[in-house]
Fold:
Amino acid sequence: MSMNNREYKAPDMHEAYSKCVNVIMKCRTEEQLMNAGRYLRNYERLMQNSHLYPTIRKPLAKRNVTNLLSLLRIKRKQFLDL
Structure:
């Protein structure tokens, strides 16, 4: 199935970031934290696809990934401290 340019809707980077935050925050087990880490790697790959997000600059994408990685580390530490 082919799409012409009028039908194509670019992915929403804010929605993708919010979803990644939600995935991390809902983790309740170590296995879920590992899966959230994989989800974060997929998010990072998505941000690196410049043809999907032509307006995103590399520093912004890197900062978003760094922030999410920090959130994942905090969540993991919180889980381990219990």
Summary: The mean pLDDT is 84.
